[in-house]
């Protein structure tokens, strides 16, 4: 229960973050921090239990009961350790945020302070408010899902939530952070794909989605090739999340985010997700040489590389970023050793790193607030920084000393433990190589830690002022909340070094969880006597001290590119080349010509059909195909086939656009008649209404186009004939081979026999759409809504100067040349000419709307449903539009979008309501006074609204006299009609004015 309380506290924070941010602004961090601490406190009893070596509790929530999938959460030492870090450091960061963000914009909890973003000292525009706390809470929830779950599927969900949330948090810093956010997203998603492949293989070969069962299975010894492949995939995922080479570049770029984001995500949370994954899968891979080699070599190599890069940086935050990459490399290498002592050392350093690194990040934010810069060169021009910020200096000194491994701090104990683990390698000469690499990495660590302290507080360049480069800036006071929230994590490492007894039991339990059967017993102490560890530490302090003393010459020597490229540049180049390759590939079909665009798709289909036919004839020909079902051929079908063929031939011959639309409608009507004759009234009625609406939309478009098609060239005509022949033959052969040769499927029989009993509905087609396959229908509704947006976007992007000059509107008047003035005026009298249609509308529109309501209501039991009802109602709306004497929109500009949105809201709301009695989109049935009602009726209403909104949008955009709302409209003359009541200008349908028509 306490396990779910901890996760529930994070979920509650996620729900409350947005309203609290709107009500309290930046002060919303206080109640959210209280929720984090409540979750932390709820986990403490369970943490004591599992850290004492006892089995943890398990909580299970049904997820996909039909497949036997449950969201299983388990309390075990590894996950509990990371959960406590996530909640504890998260609470401190939230408190820090209440004083960090801009006080002048209390309602904008996500606002980034103007002086904190790169490049150092520059000012950026404020980001949209309310985002920061919401995204932090979402990230925390995803992290807790990741570390507590025992389900492979939920593990991946949590992993991706952390990736998306970290991307969004970086993006809140505005446009300058966009490139960095995209690099973060691409790098972590690459690792996510590797993890997805690993999960699929583990699930497939172990036969279970339970992580504990999969890790304890025999597949790792029975399938060594699969084990090696999974180990590599997991390692790639770990490297991407923990910013190890070759994915190291994203973390320094992510420093574009606000300091609280860096302190939490990039020191204590998101990068620790990779560490957690490596530790979680260590029981399966600890004995795999490939796994150990990868982690040790990449980890220590990254540690040394990042240490050198850190010494190059003049932005303190960038320096901290590379120090994080370096320290994570140490932890990854220790995990790669694979022994219980090494994994315990990695856990201890993870704790120490979370404390001193989050504190140091926040302390850099304190320095930034006080001096308005993070640039080392600018800071050197500000004297008296220690005197102005004594607490910040002391905390930074303690935190940096802990990271450098100086006694008597927790960082010293954890570093000594890792050196002990490296020295325990039994790989002969390899052990000394690892120890040498660790020594170089430790020296680099000492050097950049010294640079942090000296650059932030000690170094002063008085010569700059003497040379007349401006007066030194003043150091401003900072909020005590900001200062002490940053100092506490850094200071905690000092007392922990003297009170390590409780940590021994924790490390014992951790080692037992990471290495099954471990008999490890931790004995943490500041002094273990003389040995190789203390020798290395002494050498590191001496050499590191000399490097710190010679920091200015070293700084000048490193102030140049060490390589002809960097990780971010390589990532951008790869992205650019992939984009260019995609553009080149898209050019094959990228054309405004429908024939060229569709031709590639049809050619692909023909190719696939040819391959299928060759395979079929190679395996026995038609004898392998089931025989045709009896009694399928009818004379009426042949008659309709002849009608369709004649209409298609007419379409190919005529050059009239209107004639083509009429013949195309004849094809559709013939198919509709065949559907009715086959006993499919639902499908037939739908096809009929689609044909009617399609014709109206076609004609609205044709008004702006020439009356006739251009005469095609001989080559284009020949290519069209060849393509048409291939497609026609392929479609015919495919129809003969693939259809009408099998009995009704078992699923079809089941639905026909059980639909009424399950749903209370007799209309199997409608019940399938709104109940059995409601999720598929919901996806189609979403596509429908996007189609509406696409229509608006395409029309808004069109320019008349790129189109063929339209003559459809003027053509009828041109034919009246030479006729009497009376005839021409009568033809242009739109008021009188629309009277018959208006009379029809007065009677037909109410009837159509009533029929639509009837079809909607009876759709569950008889032919009908929300889709057909919306089409019938759309026909009524189209008639109303056509009966008008001027081109006026049917509604306000935003109304169709609102209607589409309401449709999606109704459908999605019905799905969410399904959780009240079952799962997403599960319907509920009631019998009210003998009338069978279902929650799917509301879902069907959403279908109706989405379709109706799309038709309204199409008529509004295509039916106006001008091509689009914001296009190049002709100049309005004095006699132009005034705007309608709804604010849209009415465009007359004739060249004559109303005055002339009246005469």
From TrEMBL:
Q: How does it sit in the membrane?
A: Multi-pass membrane protein
> Where do the NADH:quinone oxidoreductase/Mrp antiporter transmembrane domain residues begin and end?
150-425
Q: Which residues cross the membrane?
A: 78-96, 130-148, 154-172, 184-205, 255-277, 289-312, 388-412, 432-460, 481-500, 525-550, 598-618, 638-654, 661-679, 685-705, 717-738, 781-798, 839-857, 863-883, 895-917, 937-958
Any Pfam family from its record, for instance, is MbhD
Tell me the ranges covered by the MrpA C-terminal/MbhE domain, including all copies. 717-811
Q: Does the keyword Hydrolase apply?
A: no
What keywords are annotated for this sequence in UniProt?
Answer: Cell membrane, Membrane, Transmembrane, Transmembrane helix, Transport
Stretches assigned to the Na+/H+ antiporter MnhB subunit-related protein domain: 837-952
The Gene Ontology CC terms held by the record are: plasma membrane
Q: Where is this region: Disordered?
A: 966-999
UniProt domain MrpA C-terminal/MbhD: residue ranges: 643-706
The protein, known as = DUF4040 family protein
Natural source organism: Dietzia timorensis
């Amino acid at each position: 229960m306490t396990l779910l309380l901890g996760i529930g506290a994070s979920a509650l924070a996620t729900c409350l973050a947005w309203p609290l941010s709107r009500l309290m602004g930046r002060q919303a961090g206080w109640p959210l921090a209280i929720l984090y601490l409540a979750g932390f406190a709820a986990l403490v009893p369970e943490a004591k239990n599992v850290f004492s070596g006892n089995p943890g509790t398990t909580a299970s929530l049904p997820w996909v009961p039909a497949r036997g999938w449950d969201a299983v959460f388990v309390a075990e030492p590894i996950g509990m350790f990371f959960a406590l870090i996530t909640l504890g450091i998260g609470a401190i960061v939230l408190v820090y945020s209440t004083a960090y963000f801009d006080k002048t914009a209390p309602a904008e909890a996500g606002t980034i302070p103007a002086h904190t973003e790169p490049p150092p000292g520059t000012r950026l525009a404020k980001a949209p408010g309310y985002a920061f706390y919401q995204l932090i809470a979402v990230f925390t929830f995803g992290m807790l899902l990741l570390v507590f779950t025992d389900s492979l599927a939920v593990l991946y969900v949590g992993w991706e939530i952390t990736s998306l949330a970290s991307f969004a948090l970086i993006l809140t810093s505005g446009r300058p952070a966009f490139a960095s956010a995209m690099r973060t997203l691409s790098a972590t998603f690459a690792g996510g794909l590797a993890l997805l492949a690993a999960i699929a293989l583990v699930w497939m070969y172990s036969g279970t989605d339970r992580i504990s069962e999969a890790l304890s299975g025999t597949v790792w010894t029975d399938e060594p090739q699969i084990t090696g492949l999974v180990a590599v995939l997991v390692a790639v995922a770990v490297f991407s999340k923990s910013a190890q080479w070759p994915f190291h570049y994203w973390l320094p770029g992510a420093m574009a985010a606000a300091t609280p984001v860096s302190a939490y995500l990039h020191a204590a949370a998101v990068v620790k997700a990779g560490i957690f994954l490596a530790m979680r899968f260590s029981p399966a891979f600890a004995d795999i040489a490939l796994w150990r080699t990868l982690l040790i070599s990449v980890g220590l190599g990254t540690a040394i590389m990042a240490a050198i890069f850190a010494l190059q940086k003049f932005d303190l935050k960038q320096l901290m970023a590379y120090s994080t990459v370096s320290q994570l490399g140490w932890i990854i290498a220790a995990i790669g050793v694979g022994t219980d002592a090494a994994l315990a050392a990695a856990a201890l350093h993870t704790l120490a790193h979370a404390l001193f690194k989050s504190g140091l990040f926040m302390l850099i934010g304190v320095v930034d607030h006080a001096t308005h810069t993070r640039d080392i060169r600018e800071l050197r021009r500000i004297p008296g920084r220690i005197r102005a910020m004594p607490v910040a200096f002391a905390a930074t000194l303690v935190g940096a000393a802990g990271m450098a491994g100086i006694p008597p701090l927790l960082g010293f104990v954890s570093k000594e433990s890792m050196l002990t683990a490296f020295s325990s390698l039994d790989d002969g000469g390899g052990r000394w190589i690892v120890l040498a690499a660790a020594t170089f990495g430790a020296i680099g660590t000492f050097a950049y830690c010294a640079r942090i302290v000296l650059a932030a507080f000690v170094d002063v360049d008085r010569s700059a002022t003497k040379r007349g480069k401006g007066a030194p800036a003043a150091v401003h006071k900072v909020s005590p909340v900001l200062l002490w929230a940053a100092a506490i994590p850094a200071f905690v490492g000092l007392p922990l070094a003297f009170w390590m007894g409780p940590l021994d039991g924790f490390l014992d339990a951790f080692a037992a969880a990471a290495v099954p059967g471990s008999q490890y017993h931790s004995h943490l102490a500041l002094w273990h006597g003389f040995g190789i560890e203390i020798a290395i530490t002494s050498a590191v302090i001496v050499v590191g001290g000399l490097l710190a003393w010679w920091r200015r010459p070293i700084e000048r020597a490193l102030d140049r590119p060490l390589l002809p490229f960097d990780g971010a540049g390589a990532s951008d180049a790869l992205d650019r080349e992939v984009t260019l390759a995609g553009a080149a590939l898209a050019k094959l079909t990228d054309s405004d010509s429908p024939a060229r665009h569709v031709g590639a798709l049809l050619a692909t289909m023909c190719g696939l059909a040819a391959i299928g036919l060759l395979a079929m004839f190679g395996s026995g020909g038609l004898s392998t195909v089931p025989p045709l079902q009896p009694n399928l051929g009818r004379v009426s079908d042949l008659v309709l086939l002849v009608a369709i063929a004649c209409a298609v031939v007419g379409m190919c011959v005529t050059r009239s656009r209107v004639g083509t639309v009429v013949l195309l409608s004849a094809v559709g009507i013939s198919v509709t008649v065949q559907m009715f004759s086959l006993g499919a009234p639902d499908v037939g009625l739908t096809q009929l209404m689609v044909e009617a609406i399609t014709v109206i939309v076609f004609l609205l478009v044709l008004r702006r186009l020439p009356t006739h098609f251009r005469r095609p060239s001989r080559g284009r005509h020949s290519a069209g004939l060849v393509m048409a022949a291939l497609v026609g033959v392929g479609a015919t052969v495919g129809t003969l081979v693939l259809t009408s040769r099998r009995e009704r499927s078992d699923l079809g029989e089941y639905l026909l026999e059980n639909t009424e009993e399950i749903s209370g509905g007799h209309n199997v087609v409608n019940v399938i759409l709104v109940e059995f396959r409601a999720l598929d229908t919901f996806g189609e509704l979403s596509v429908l809504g996007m189609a509406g947006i696409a229509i608006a976007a395409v029309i808004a992007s069109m320019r008349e100067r790129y189109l063929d000059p339209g003559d459809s509107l003027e053509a009828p008047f041109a034919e009246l040349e030479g006729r009497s003035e009376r005839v021409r005026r009568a033809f242009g009298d739109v008021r009188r000419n629309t009277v018959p249609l208006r009379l029809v509308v007065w009677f037909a529109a109410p009837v159509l709307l009533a029929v639509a309501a009837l079809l909607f209501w009876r759709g569950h039991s008889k032919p009908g449903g929300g889709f057909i009802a919306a089409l019938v109602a759309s026909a009524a709306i189209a008639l109303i539009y056509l009966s008008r004497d001027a081109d006026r929109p049917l509604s306000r500009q935003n109304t169709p979008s609102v209607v589409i949105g309401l449709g999606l809201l109704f459908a999605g709301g019905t799905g969410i309501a399904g959780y009240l009695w079952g799962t997403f989109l599960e319907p509920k049935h009631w019998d009210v006074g003998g009338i069978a009602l279902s929650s799917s009726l509301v879902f069907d209403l959403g279908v109706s609204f989405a379709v109706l909104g799309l038709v309204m949008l199409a008529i509004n955009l295509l039916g106006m006299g001008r091509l689009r709302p914001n296009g190049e409209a002709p100049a309005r003359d004095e006699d132009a009609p005034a705007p309608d009541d709804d604010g849209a200008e009415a465009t007359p349908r004739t060249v004559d004015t109303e005055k002339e028509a009246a005469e």
